[in-house]
From TrEMBL:
Keyword Ribosomal protein: no
Protein name: Galactitol 2-dehydrogenase
Alphabetical keyword list: Oxidoreductase
One Pfam family here: adh_short_C2
EC identifiers of the protein: 1.1.1.16
InterPro entries named among the record's database cross-references: NAD(P)-bd_dom_sf, Sc_DH/Rdtase_CS, SDR_fam
Organism for this UniProt entry: Paenibacillus allorhizoplanae
Domain of life of the organism encoding this protein: Bacteria
GO MF, any single term: galactitol 2-dehydrogenase activity
Signal sequence, renumbered to the chain: none
Record flagged with keyword Oxidoreductase: yes
Top-tier EC class: oxidoreductase
Length: 258
């Protein structure tokens, strides 16, 4: 069997949180193109259904949309129940949903700080934990959590204290999960994207003045494309990465080399 055949995900059952748009949508497409059935999990059901329909039309694999608030344990459990009912098992979980809130530390409120931590860290914990419980029972699986280069550096010129703290927490949490579940054949890794040229980023007028500054600081002098995360996501979701756990993959154009 050649290397491309080994990278296939035929028969794998997966989910992607925050899968309706942006990085999550691109990863969901990639998993499906590699042969996996995919559940598009998002708080925006209408957009999730559109994405699921697009993927289903492009590939022959099963794709479903599930509305879930990942900060709610009950909704996360319902999500898992729906996936098991539709797919029968869960082989790979891509815990990707997240938000940002760029304000100076002195102006941040506890409410806003808690909201970012709740979605980015607590939500990732709840979805990864729920996936891990299923995978332990069935004898194995792989979890990929979206962190960020912001966990490794301080962003400039924008102020991202709560976001950076939440993503650093995701990496530490994932490493601990990886060690605790290693003997249960459940692998946990993180992907740390740099600045990505998603539609949301490019269409946000508030970010337009910052993009040129970011690109000047990035060694390759451009933002990343969401599709440049596809290969690592497919690798981590499949059997080719069977010896890879507790790792963090920085896809940032060299930004964190400084």
């Amino acid at each position: 069997m050649g290397i491309l055949e080994k990278m296939r995900l035929d028969g794998k059952k997966t989910f992607v949180t925050g899968g309706a748009r942006g990085i999550g949508k691109r990863i969901a497409f990639a998993l499906s193109e590699a042969g996996a059935d995919v559940a598009i999990v998002d708080v925006d059901l209408e957009e999730a259904q559109k994405t699921a329909k697009e993927i289903a039309q492009a590939n022959n694999n099963k794709t479903i949309a599930i509305k879930t608030n990942i900060t709610s344990p009950d909704e996360v459990n319902e999500m898992i129940e729906t996936i098991l009912k539709e797919f029968g098992r869960l082989d790979a979980a891509f815990c990707n949903a997240g938000i940002g809130h760029g304000v100076p530390v002195e102006d941040d409120t506890l409410e806003d700080w808690t909201r970012v931590i709740n979605v980015n860290l607590n939500g990732t914990f709840l979805t990864a934990q729920a996936a891990g419980r299923v995978m332990i029972k069935q004898g194995g699986g792989t979890i990929i959590n979206t962190a960020s280069m912001s966990a490794h550096i301080t962003n400039v010129p924008q102020k991202e204290c709560s976001y950076a703290a939440s993503k650093a927490g995701v990496i530490a949490m994932s490493r601990n999960m990886a060690v605790e579940w290693a003997d249960k054949n459940v692998r946990v890794n993180t992907i740390s994207p740099g600045y990505m040229a998603t539609e949301m980023t490019l269409n946000d007028p508030g970010l337009a003045p910052l993009i040129s500054q970011w690109e000047e600081l990035i060694p390759v002098h451009r933002m990343g494309k969401p599709e440049e995360l596809e290969a690592i996501a497919v690798y981590l979701a499949g059997d080719m990465s069977s010896y890879t756990t507790g790792a963090d993959f920085r896809i940032d154009g060299g930004y964190t080399c400084f």
